[in-house]
Amino acid sequence: MKEIYIGVDVGSVSTNVVAIDRNVNVLFKTYIRTNGQPIDSVKEGVKQLKEALGDVEVLGVGATGSGRQLAGAILGADVVKNEITAHATATIHFVPDVRTIFEIGGQDSKIIIIKDQMVVDFAMNTVCAAGTGSFLDHQAERLKIPIEQFGDLALSATRPVRIAGRCTVFAESDMIAKQQFGFSKAEIIRGLCDALVRNYLNNVGRGKNLEPPFVFQGGVAANKGIRAAFERELQSKIIVPEHFNVMGAIGSAILAKDYIEKTKTRTNFRGFDATDIDFSTSSFECKGCSNRCEVVKVSMEGKVIAMWGDRCGKWTNSL
Amino acid sequence: MKVSFPYMGSAIVYKKLFEFLEHEVVMPPKPTQRTMDLGVKYSPEFACIPLKMVMGTYLEAIEKGAKVLVTSGGHGPCRAGFYGDTHRNILKSLGYDDVELIIFDAPQDNWRAFFRNVQKIRNGVPWHKVINRMYTLYRFVQKLDELEKMVQKIRPYEVNKGQTTQVWNQIHEKFDKVKTRKQLYEVYEECKQMLLSIPTRKVDEKDRIRVGIVGEIYVVMESSINFGIEEILGNLGVEVERSLYLFEWINDNLVPWILRPKRFKEIIKKGQRYIKILIGGHAVETVGHIIDFKERGFDGIVHLMPFACLPELVTQSLIPKISKEIDIPILSLPIDEQTGKANMLTRIEAFIDLLKNRKRGKTREIFIDNIQEDVQEERVVMV
Ligand code: SF4
Q1: What InterPro entries does the database record attribute to this sequence (chain B) (predicted)?
Q2: Distance, CA B32 to ligand 1 centroid (Å)?
Q3: Under 8 Å CB-to-CB from B369, ≥6 apart: which residues?
Q4: Which ipTM was obtained for this model?
């Protein structure tokens, strides 16, 4: 029977599930829209995994992403880690000498600085979404171009055009203006790619020392136009790893593997039957003291299995 | 007079102050989402978060019957100096003409106004009593801060998760009942024992992670707006110390200049290495404390800034340089009404991973050594 480690990355836009073997070969990967239903998307991902791989023995499970606690509770994860550590772990595995990681997903983007295989600095976008995938989606829709064709079209442009990409509002009015000046759609798209990269590097990368080798990952790394814009801006080669869009999930699987191997423990994995179990979450405001914590409660078939969010441990310890 | 005040940090201190002056005190509720909603609704959109939260607190206190609101002003060229007037105008436009707002600006800026305010809130209590009770309050703040510093050093190593916070809540309740200096010292000793009897893990000196928290006063002091960052860090096994404690703030701002502890002047001097002129807020102190924490062997700094806070933006822009020159990792966290907790947690956890890596070794294999303990720290309780 195949022995595998499962990694799950639950973000606000997508949920990724992977399976790796002992040598970190990726045996399975899937990418599901979260659609505000993290429990369903985690279940769906694991179900697909089971269908694709057949009989397997799960040795360990890792969870990451903004929904990591929830995913961890549902699956019985052994390691629950933040995205930055998870992404860095995976990237270091595939590109050992990496110095800078660009990670651009739907809503979030990050820059991770690595030295001697160690995270030494990082940044995430805060309030600005102009350096993320949703910015591109939105503009593609405006121009009535399927996002899949976006990259190729950008590459076909011959003239550069500067689009004000500081935010969606400015970008839109500037695009209209540039169209009226007679620039082609391809040129405008190339301008948009440049704007996104400029914006991302200025906002997220502000004050950071960006050194090659550069690795570019996350959903947006599929876009050739953006890749080219990075190469233009940084005057350097950009590496896009094979599994660019599921690196967080792979990283959490690696962390789970390392942890299980190191501690020689048995996994907490609930088993594939967990996909048939009925889970639900709810939250309430505790009025036990003036902290008024927002406590999250996860129930499995009506029985509470995990709680978090309480400051004093009153609820967490009550289980 | 039914008196209330902005809620910030250990708010029982302000409550004590007005109790000692024999006012009827309306305890403002600890800020919640509702406070935020109220504040945001009635404040200018581009105001920073402390102004909005305090606005919300005022409205909630007024709901509970407060007629007089007492607060401290700002000084230097930061818009905090306008807070008082802004709040006053908003209250007026909402029709609260009967609510009085008393603003204490730094005494050295205008002694006369300061004493006029003192007279107002003195409430006719004879001076010798005022002085005696203010001295008790001074010690009250000191003792409470001492206990808080203990809390911050015990929490990361507690065996039963959440116990330290529970004890800290109990300490507040006990302090709330204190009336005299004698009681204060007794309660202090009792609370100290309560803290010392919390079971803790033994952690080697070289494995301890210490983080200093710096930034604008409101977001540094008030846990409801900074997501309880001290507890988050403590639960991740990290010792914390803030740049600001009430007792030190009083010493630095209200105690006459001659009597002020030297420490404050030293911090300012350190800060002036990077910020030479007064730009308001706590920018110079923030930088000074970053350097100070580094000199005292701390492993990292968390810098809290209200979104669009000018002085802290200046600090933030200096941070890459400072971080590099004195070699200490610094995490800046902008705080606004939209700040999501998940996002904030991710940064904090990743930052602590980074500090542990730095301290204990490189590469994945060595990093894994830390995981076992991390897993225990981070995982939620599961059945
Ligand atoms: S969970 Fe604990 S700290 Fe939070 S409100 Fe309830 S009693 Fe207070």
Answers
A1: Dehydratase_Activator_Redct (IPR051805), FldB/FldC_alpha/beta (IPR010327)
A2: 13
A3: A262, B360, B361
A4: 0.80
